[in-house]
Structure formats: C-alpha cells, structure tokens
Amino acid sequence: MKTHWQILVVDDEEVMCESLAAWLREDGYVVDTASSGRDAVEKARLRDYAIYFVDLKMPGGMDGIETMMQIRRLHPEASIIIITAYATVDTAITAMKEGAQEYIVKPCNPEEISLLVNRIIKVKNLQRENTILRKKLTRQYCVHDVVSKNPRMQEIMALCGEIASLRSTVLIQGESGTGKELVARAIHNAGDRASKPFVAVSCAALAETLLESEFFGHEKGSFTSANQQKRGKFEMANTGTIFLDEIGDISPKLQVDLLRVLQDRSFYRVGGSEEVRVDVRVVAATHVNLQQAVAEGNFRDDLYYRLNVIEIRIPPLRARREDIPLLADHFVERLSHELGKDVSEVSEGALRLLLDHNWPGNVRELENAVERAMVTCRGPVLTESDFGFLAQAAAPAPVWAVPAGMTIEDMEKVLITATIQRTQGNIKEAASVLGIDRSTLYEKIKKYEIPR
Amino acid sequence: MKYLYVAAAEEVERGALAAVTARLAAEFGGPVRDMELGSVDFAFDAERRQYGSIPLLDMLLRRCPPDAAKLLAVTERDLFIPVLTFVFGQAQLGGRVGVVSFARLRQEFYGLAANREIFLERACKEALHETGHLFGLVHCPERKCAMSLATTVRQIDLKDDAFCAACGARLRRNPEGTQV
Ligand SMILES: [Zn+2]
Ligand SMILES: [Zn+2]
Fold this sequence. Notes:
Chain A has helices at residues 14-26, 37-46, 64-74, 89-97, 110-135, 151-163, 180-190, 208-216, 233-236, 252-264, 290-295, 301-307, 323-339, 348-356, 362-376, 388-393, 408-422, 427-434, 438-448, and strands at 6-10, 30-34, 51-55, 79-84, 102-105, 170-173, 198-202, 217-218, 230-231, 241-245, 266-268, 275-277, 281-286, 310-313, 345-346, 381-382.
C-alpha cells in the first residue's frame, strides 16, 4: 500500500534533503527531492505528492511559506509538513495558518516523524477507499423520497445503495433543510439492516448531561430526575442504524465518549457499571463545516476521521435549481393526499417564482412553501398569488417605484434589510448575494441598526 | 564471486563484531568478509556532538571493495541525520552500503546496568535490519519482523532476531536486492 504514495522533500541543503529522503525510502515511500522552492513547484506541477516536506528557510527569493502557498495553489488538498529550526517556530505557526498541515522542529525524534507520516497516510488511504467506492457508482435510485435529476444528487443516491450494507460510519454534510435525514434513512433502508431499528437523535441544543443519557441511557437515580433505568438511543438502535444529527454541536466530553463507542462498540449507561455492547451503524450529519471545526480546535480530529469514513456532501437547493419543478410536483402530489385537497399542478408563473427564490431553507423550505400555498389555494392549480408570501419576503419586486427624496444610504439600508430577510438571517449568504464581504456587511448592519 | 562485507570502525568491540558477522553469515549464507575501517572521526559534527551517517555512507561508497556485493559498516559512534535527533543505522535501499551504530543499543546509554546479552541481541537485529534494506526490503508492518521500523530500543526488543516469512520470501525471490 505504502509504495503507491509519493513524497517530495524540499530543502536547499543537499545532505538534509537526501538524508530525509533516504530515511523515508526505507519506510517504503517513493521519495523525490527538490533543491529550491522553484524546483519543488515544477515537480508538483508534474505530479501530486501525498506529502510535501518543506524547509522553512530557503534562500533565492522563494522561502518555505511561499513554496507551500504555490504548491497549495496547484494541489489544495496537499499535506504539507514544514521543517523548521527552534529559532523560527513562530514563522512555522504562521505557516500552519496558511495551510500547512503540520510542522516539525529539527532535529526531531524519529518516532514523532514516523507517527506523523503514518497518520497522514492513513487518512489518505481512507480517502482513497472512499473515492474507489464512489467510482463504483451505479445509476440506480435507492431512495423514493429524494427526488432529483441533478447529477451530483444522483451520484449521492447511487452511493447510498453502494454503501448501504457496509458498517462503515457515514458523515453527511449539508445546509439545514437539504434532507440529511432522508439520505440517512435511504442508506439504512437499502441495506441489510433495513428491517432493524433506525433511531434518530438531534444533538443540537441539548445540555451535555441530557444528551449523554439520551445516547447511553442511565441507571436509576444516576441524576436527580432519573427515577428509573432508561435505555439510551444506542441501545435502541442495536443491530440497526443510529442517526446523529448536528454532530458538530456535541461537547468535548461527549466527543470522547462517542469516540470510545465507535472504537469499542460498547459503553456504560450513565451511573452504570455494566458494559453494554452494541452493534450499531453510525450515520452522522452536520450543517457546520466539521473540517473547519477541527482546524479551530472545536472538534476532535480523531473523532472526525472516525466519522468521516464515507463522506456525503449534499448540495444546497440553489445549486440544483433544476430539481425545483420536480420537487414542487412531488410535494403537490404527496400533500394533496395528506391534506385531502384536489390540487394537481403548479402554474408556469408560480414555477417561475419558485425558480427565482433563493431557498436558504432548502428543500424543507420549499416543502413548507408548497404546503402553505396548498392550504390557502382555491383551485386545482397553484398560482403565483398562492405563493405571494415568497414575493413579500423577497428583495425588490421586478418593477418598483423609488420614493422621492430617498438617499443612497436609505436605499442601501432597504436593500440590506430585504436581503437579510430573504436569507433568513444568514449573514454569510446575504453578503455573497450583495457582493460584499462579511465584515463590511456587519459594519453596515451596525451603522444602519438593522435588526437580524 | 561477490561477498557481503562487514566493515568495523576501529573503536568497535571485536567480540560483538564476531557475533554480528556470524548472524549475517547464517542468514545470508556466508562467507562474510571482514574489513577494517579505521577512525570515523571525519564524520563528527561539533555542533550536534554526533556523527553524520551521510558522510559515513559516502566514505563507504568510495572504499567499497570491487568484490563486495553489499557492505555493512559497524560503529560505536552515535549517528544522526540533520532532521532527526539520531538514527540507529542507515542503508541505501537496494544499494551497496549501510551502517549500524551500537551506541544506543547498549543499556549503559540509558543509564542502566550493562547487559551483554541484551546488547548483542539488539546488535544482531539491527545488523539484519540494515542489511535487509541493502537487499531492497522496506519496513515491514509485522512488529516482530526484523524489518519493522524501530525508533526506540523497546521496539527493537519486541522484534525477533529474524525476518518474517513474507520478508524472507521477498529476499529469496530477489537475491540481488536491487529492486524494492
Ligand atoms: Zn529501517
Ligand atoms: Zn517482515
């Protein structure tokens, strides 16, 4: 396995370069060397290395940081390890902020460097297995509730079928309302655990102690309100699948506990001393960027890698607008049964309105909109006026009169207020719609005292 | 006919040298030839107060006898490469020359009472390990195999004084050791 991975060692000192290369070759890696930053970038252009060791201090105009940044421009996923001397550790820390994965202070302990390389390669191996899995995609729908003709979504659905019968942990990333739980259920239903329990837990906004007992159950009297033994969600999901929504929200302590369950497949009930063994497939989901949370130290990296064995990223609805008509029809059909209303279609005009909307709340927002329109509509066709509430929330109507005496500042305030309303308070998205950066938007919100 | 050479620096204890040579002869099917290396002081780095394994390997390449298939040098000096605090030894993968240091294999190095048996066992394992590299073997994931990577003496002690079945088979398939 190791021999597939190539490493590039970059240092202007030949002895330094060659000795590290020789040492890594003994470990089975194919190692190239580069004697300058320019040389390194040239080599990186020709092939992507699994790991780049880059000396921070190199003469000739291009130091380690500059070299690293150029390599990252070619290979954003590259793992770069900065080599530094004691005197320049501060600079190495700067390098980490610029995207270096690690730094080592030379001379470093052989054990340290060997563990570091192994860890990076392990992750690369996992990622590669992932890609191989994805390449085996078959064009087969496995989910009935996920409606899409978007190629990315079809890929995801095919992947669901492919991985359904594995026990590997799955991490689903996507904005809220994109249907993460649907995808989790799809994975469960398509596999050989389909007849076993599917248990969903939302990790958001629950106090640590509550969530802990929610996960693992508790023994009688283990905390004040516990007057009898309770089974946790992990026990309930035994032989089936547990879906952990908003996994990014769990506390550091629970992260450790969860890691242990994933490793040992066993745990203790809160206040209990008896080990409970379970066979549970874990599917986790998050709307926050977990990788970033890891980088910021808010989420354990070992837990992240455990969870992220198979990664699924669901695109937001605005990135797959071609699905809006399909989804609208799907919801109309389903809701007409549920609501007992004889509605059969969506008018052209209404559809145009739906296509123009930004859908910050994604598929769920669309479903809610269709439901709201159906409740109030009075004919067999949903029209533009049935979706009037969308237009209200939306930014300026196509034609609008500018009130007399309005200043540019007034207009800016109106525009920002409307945009923030439309993105449902999502500042990042509002900033991108307005074409300004987030900090500028915050300044303006403050300046105009815009409520959020 | 080409031979496996064991080259001893002047400071090396002859008894230990004999033990290592015998182990290599048994493993690689002797005879193993001896060679005197003299002093390795030229490789001394005043700043690190250790000996550079790269200059040492360079010297070995220059002095490698024409009838040497592989040459393994043995020294009592503590070896290093610039990026690492030390190395137990180093060898050109699938190449001609390698070196083993006895310095950190002795209990005394760690402030413990000398133990000749433990030291000789470690010396044989490390000599096998570096020679294995010369024959093109890379590190073996089997912790008990002499080819597994050891970065501490503790890890050396956990190894067997032998190659695992897979590494042994690889050696037999490729006796010249020019390829990995
Ligand atoms: Zn080795
Ligand atoms: Zn082996």
